[in-house]
From TrEMBL:
Disordered, as annotated region: 485-524, 545-568, 588-626
Pfam families given in the database record: BTB (PF00651), NPH3 (PF03000)
Transmembrane segments: none
SUPFAM superfamilies: POZ domain
Protein name: BTB/POZ domain-containing protein NPY2-like
Organism: Pyrus ussuriensis x Pyrus communis
Pathway: Protein modification; protein ubiquitination
Keywords: Phosphoprotein, Ubl conjugation pathway
Gene Ontology cellular-component terms listed: cytosol; membrane
Listed Low complexity bias regions: 509-518, 588-610
Length: 626
């Protein structure tokens, strides 16, 4: 710490109790100066020779009264005592802790060069400019002391000089940083543990965010001004600015890391709102922004700040994790988690994606840099994130199906390679909400594309007793097509129009299309034996592939018959059970008058098959693997 000694005479000031100060000299004192609750017994000559204000005060006092009063001097009795000792020529030491108070007191007492050359005002200015403002740590200490001396410290320009000094040093080239600083929050990368190379000490590189921790001790108003000036210089990257704000929030907001905000609510609220406004776009991890959002909700911050924070989170939602999104709802709400808030985040992500596609150059009022267009990878990450989030919140028995569907539909346009996550979420919701009505179940299941289920998911789905019949048929149908394609065959099963009606779009199209008959098959459940038989056909080789066979009757290969003879009769029977299942579904639709005349003439099964199906129609429930 820098310091400056003024004067050379010994200190003759004495104390009598807590409120009396006097000078022990051969001459009797001739003036009493009351500063606050402390009385100083001094001599007029040394004081009046250096202070124009004291000259004026003595001039207006009565000749019979040698007492003057000073109640509003900045720095109080301590600062006045330093000024008085300087007037006597006694030794005083200036440092970063008392220099601002002395500077303001000298300004108050009008101790200028016009009164006497080399006066206190001039000497303090020299010390500030030659030592204090050139020192990193002293500038920070001085800036902290200015808060108790407002508005004087602002009027004498000490605050502005400190801010400029700190900001200039923080933005200097790191190769020119030669002073000490505090840096504990991150380890520097090093090439091994050897600090020497060929016997010569290696120079440790200064990190770009070297100044972050030293500024965490500043009060919020001063910190805000420092960061604002640093940002305005344009020399520091947004990542470093974000790291600084992240460190300050963690240090100053008690319990922030654990999600439990403690301390003064008003101060904490002001801190969170200030940090939200100072944060540049994409400068901190999404997890930190979500913690900040939780704090903003707990502290009841303004809607403007929360909306701005939601906008920033939405732009980088692809970085979030499920645990980040699981924000506990207030106790007065029915749901366990803040689903509406997460919905707002997803809406912002979708809106940002749409805006980037229509007008990539569009910028909002709060954006410091242009946000990049979202990649397909980001969309896939968000879609998977929403699937996992839905799985977690589905455990909440009070979660309405409408909210589940709304969240899922928001990312339905994001193409993802698999729908296993969405299927898992749907299955979890159906498991935890067995009383869901038919319409809600249909709307929920139609979100899933059965063609994008993995083999394991398909195996689970066809045995899942919670799924509607229509979904099971779709899963089996598309898995049969996949099995045919993997076996080298491009053919698809020949199904009646009535059976196709149970498939998405009534054909081989997207599973998201609406069928002409939307009610049939949503409540029906096939028997366990029929499901097992159809699975046998899908997940076993085709007849032409059994025992190395390379043909089929359809292709006119005589070897197919021979290969067929080698297949056990039970397996052959299972391979043709799917036709009986579709026949049963077709028959049920025909009996209810739902099939056109052109389709009723083409029954997919013979009468003997119908009898056999009838005899094996046991309503066994399917087993669930979830």
């Amino acid at each position: 710490m820098k310091f400056m000694k003024l004067g050379s005479k010994p200190d003759f000031f004495q104390t009598d109790g807590d409120n009396i100060r006097y000078v022990t000299t051969e001459l009797a004192t001739d003036v009493a100066v009351n500063v606050g609750d402390v009385k100083f017994y001094l001599h007029k000559f040394p004081l009046l020779s250096k202070s124009a204000r004291l000259q004026k005060l003595v001039a207006i006092t009565n000749e019979d009264n040698d007492e003057i009063h000073i109640h509003d001097i900045p720095g109080g009795p301590a600062a006045f005592e330093i000024c008085a000792k300087f007037c006597y020529g006694m030794t005083v030491t200036l440092n970063a802790y008392n220099v601002v108070a002395t500077r303001c007191a000298a300004e108050y007492l009008e101790m200028y060069e016009t009164i006497e050359k080399g006066n206190l005002f001039y000497k303090v200015e020299v010390f500030l400019n030659s030592s204090i403002f050139r020192s990193w740590k002293d500038s920070i200490i001085v800036l902290q002391t200015t808060r108790s001396l407002l508005p004087w410290s602002e009027e004498v320009k000490v605050v502005s000089h400190c801010l400029d000094s700190i900001a200039s040093k923080a933005t200097i080239d790191t190769s020119k940083v030669e002073w000490s600083y505090m840096y504990n929050h991150k380890k520097l990368p090093s090439n091994g543990d050897d600090s020497h190379w060929n016997g010569v000490a290696k120079q440790q590189m200064v990190p770009k965010d070297w100044w972050v921790e030293d500024l965490c001790g500043l009060q919020l108003d001063l910190y805000k001004r420092v960061i604002t000036i640093i940002k305005s210089k344009g020399k520091i990257s947004v990542d470093v600015i974000g790291e600084a704000l992240k460190a300050y929030t963690t240090r100053r907001l008690s319990g922030f890391s654990k999600g439990l905000i403690q301390g003064d609510v008003v101060k904490n609220k002001s801190l969170v709102e200030t940090v939200i406004h100072l944060l540049p776009a994409r400068s901190v991890p999404c997890s930190f922004l979500l913690k900040l959002l939780k704090a903003a909700r707990l502290l009841e911050c303004g809607e403007v700040e929360k909306c701005e924070l939601i906008r920033k989170i939405g732009q980088q939602l692809d970085e979030a994790t499920v645990s980040d999104l699981l924000i506990q709802a207030p106790t007065d709400e029915t749901t366990k988690y803040e689903v509406d808030m997460v919905q707002s985040l997803i809406e912002e992500f979708v809106t940002h994606n749409r805006s980037a596609q229509t007008d990539p150059s569009m910028e909002t009022e709060f954006q410091e840099i242009r946000s990049p267009r979202l990649s397909d990878t980001s969309k896939v990450k968000v879609a998977k994130l929403v699937d996992s989030y839905l799985t977690e919140i589905s455990r909440d028995p009070n979660l309405p199906a409408s909210k589940f569907v709304c969240l899922a539909e928001m990312v339905s346009s994001f193409a993802r390679p698999t729908h296993d996550g969405l299927y898992r979420a749907i299955d979890m919701y159906l498991k935890e909400h067995p009383g869901i009505n038919k319409g809600e179940k249909k709307r929920m299941c139609k979100l899933m594309d059965c063609r994008k289920l993995s083999v394991d998911a398909c195996m689970h789905a066809v045995q899942n007793e919670r799924l509607p019949l229509r979904v099971v048929v779709q899963v089996l149908f598309f898995e049969q097509i996949r099995a045919s394609a993997s076996g080298g065959s491009n053919s698809t099963p020949d199904l009646q129009g009535s059976i196709r009606a149970l498939l998405p779009g009534g054909s081989h199209g997207s599973s998201r299309s609406t069928t002409t008959n939307t009610q049939n098959g949503w409540d029906d459940v096939p028997t366990a034996e029929e499901i097992k038989a159809l699975k046998c056909e899908i997940f076993t080789p085709r007849l032409g592939e059994v025992n190395g066979g390379v043909g089929s009757d359809r292709n006119g290969n005589p070897g197919a018959t021979k290969n067929l003879e080698k297949v056990p009769s039970g397996k052959v029977k299972g391979m043709f059970m799917s036709k009986k299942i579709f026949s049963k579904l077709w028959s049920s639709k025909e009996s209810s008058g739902e099939i056109s005349s052109s389709n009723t003439s083409e029954s997919p099964g013979s009468s003997s098959n119908a009898e056999e199906t009838k005899s094996t129609r046991s309503r066994s429930r399917r087993n669930s693997l979830s």
